[in-house]
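To close the section, here is one more complete example, presented without commentary so you can practise reading it yourself. The ligand is adenosine-5'-diphosphate.
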Amino acid sequence: MHQKQLLCIAGDRSMAAGYAHALRDWKVRVVGTLGEARRALCTDGYLVGLLVGLEEVEHAELDHFLSQNWQQQWIGLLQPAALSSARWRQLVGDHFYDFHTDPVDPVRLGHALGHALGVAQLRAPSPAPLAAPAAAAMIGNSAAIGRLRAQITRVAHADAPVFIGGESGSGKELAARAVHAQSPRRAGPFVPVNCGALTPTLIQSELFGHARGAFTGAAADKPGLIETASGGTLFLDEVAELPKDQQANLLRFLQEKTIYRVGSTRNIAVDARVIAASHVDLQRAVEQGLFREDLYYRLHVLPLAVPPLRERSADVPLLAEHVFRQHAADRPKGLKGFSSAALEALRQHDWPGNVRELINRTRRAMVLAEGRLITPADLALADARRPPGGAALDESRIAAERAALLASLERAGNNRSRAARELGVSRMTLYRLLDKHGIAGK
Ligand SMILES: Nc1ncnc2c1ncn2[C@@H]1O[C@H](COP(=O)(O)OP(=O)(O)O)[C@@H](O)[C@H]1O
Ligand SMILES: [Mg+2]
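Output:
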């Protein structure tokens, strides 16, 4: 069986020996400094860590270390005196899964370590899907994204123009970059051009460049975007936005593979592969006379369709976890991930803004979340699991919990250890409950 692994950071290495009984089921690696711990975490992915006798380590340094290594579950063994310091209490509240004070009860410590490992395993990222390295940035395990990946690999090896359709925010640009990255042109440039954002009067010189003196302000020869894509890939995003006269110029380039800079009669050969994308139905635009039919056929040689996110809802939790990890630096300390209610709400939402909307909602939730886990409310989504009328029941449960806490504290004369014992919860849980109910500590 795979032995449970534990990283033990001990201010004095010999201290770890005192807990041998509680740790007998574990393969323990003892390190003496945070630097050694960092190296150990890099080489062997520990999920659970034990901090022993670190009261002497500078608070800010420890805080920084624990903030960086938030994916592990940490348990602290502390001198009782440490808890009389507000900074230590905060450190424990922010980062620790559990803590124990001397004298440590080995049975309780053994249980806490076991629980911590269970929680860490639940939260550990699922193994990344196997994908060609270039497409690794495209997250998803759904059949729909699998088909898209396979199509990308196929079209990447051809040199004909690719047309990518799909709703806004669904990942068209990402798909275009993946095509380039897997193509024989991968060492060449990838030049994105947003056809909707070019200044109408300057489009032609932006795309094709200009000769010196071609117009007022043209002080020197300047290559255009198409030319800079030579040897690589030109990505024409929102190509339906291109005005008709520029559509004609683009068509000429696609037919002849040469361009003229504005104000020049010199013919320049450009070897760039073209990938175009649009969120509008280009065929409809042709029927409405807004887009040249001949250009449509030139661009539409190898079509790719990026499915909307609501058609691959199985990927939503994966994408959300990916965004969470990518922006881990923005999250408040102690925020560990998504509650299951939040994951369910993400799955149920229909994502009109696709992956871009998912990124925005997740990033906002990471900033706003107040607890250890992101809730549906943090994501500005309804709790899909709450049955109609369930809100009232929930509220009365919360009120009852609060009343029980207050009553127990009063009976215990505000002694938290006694209150915790009476309530049958660990002190850590009691602290969490007090925090949740905003019951101020003394
Ligand atoms: N499958 C995916 N995995 C990871 N990130 C994605 C995925 N699809 C889209 N994104 C991200 O979502 C955002 C919007 O994607 P983008 O390609 O710009 O969409 P579009 O061009 O269709 O509007 C980008 O930040 C992109 O990196
Ligand atoms: Mg785009």
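Once you have examined the tokens, check your reading against these statements. The pocket of magnesium ion (ligand 2) is lined by residues 172-173, 237 (CB under 6 Å). The longest helix spans residues 390-411.
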